[in-house]
Amino acid sequence: MEKKDYKTALIATATRLFAERGLNGVSIRELSTAAGVSISMISYYFDGKEGLYSAVLLDQFSCFRYMESIKERASGPLEKIEEYVRWSIQRNRDYPYLLRYYTSELTNPTRYFSIIVQPALEKALHILIEIIKEGVENKQFREDLNPEDTALAMAGMVNYYFLSTLATQKFINHSPERDEELIRHYMDLFTKGL
User: What is the CATH number of the domain that holds 17?
Assistant: First the structure.
């Protein structure tokens, strides 16, 4: 008989339940029952429900470390922007609950916002801003471009595509097969405008 990985089961279950109902909307009993483990395992592995929530946030926002590799690429700003768009789309596919945590923590921050969420988002935005500044300095982008506003607009556009899926599924095809077309479309918007 194979030994159950209680820690992994708890994180997977908690990721879904916390995304659906938030930190305070889920009891320890619900978490343990849904994961098929005893309540004591939550304390053993995570020192309680808040520790489990923190572990979920760390897992969800760990993908933001990829921004460092985009920054370090030996390519120009435009190629880095395209890689950012590509990564953002893939990130939302790979972490389907991430935007729920993202918006929940931005609108109703827990004590983990300043420890986990804010540093991840700030680092990603700073890297994106640096890439945009590099493009302006290299005269690849308009000189009157505001890097901060541009970075926020880019992040917002890509994230909203996934955030609005439920509301737009009747008239927008959100399937992964369309991702390359979406990347091209976003790059055209960013580089050519309307």
Answer: 1.10.10.60
CA pair distance 133, 81, nearest whole angstrom = 12
Burial 91-121 (b: 16+ CB within 10 A, else e): bbeebeebbbbbebbeeeebebbeebbeebb
The answer on 166 and 113 residing in a single domain is: yes
Q: What is the pLDDT of residues 3-62, one digit of tens each?
A: 568 899 999 999 999 999 999 999 999 999 999 999 999 999 999 999 999 999 999 999
- Segments forming the whole domain that contains residue 24: 6-59
Domain closes at, from 59, 75, 101:
59
In 3D space, the residue among 187, 162, 188 whose CA is nearest the CA of residue 84 turns out to be 187
Q: How far apart are CA 20 and CA 100, in angstroms?
A: 8
Q: What is the pTM of this model?
A: 0.91
Q: Are residues 77 and 131 in the same domain?
A: yes
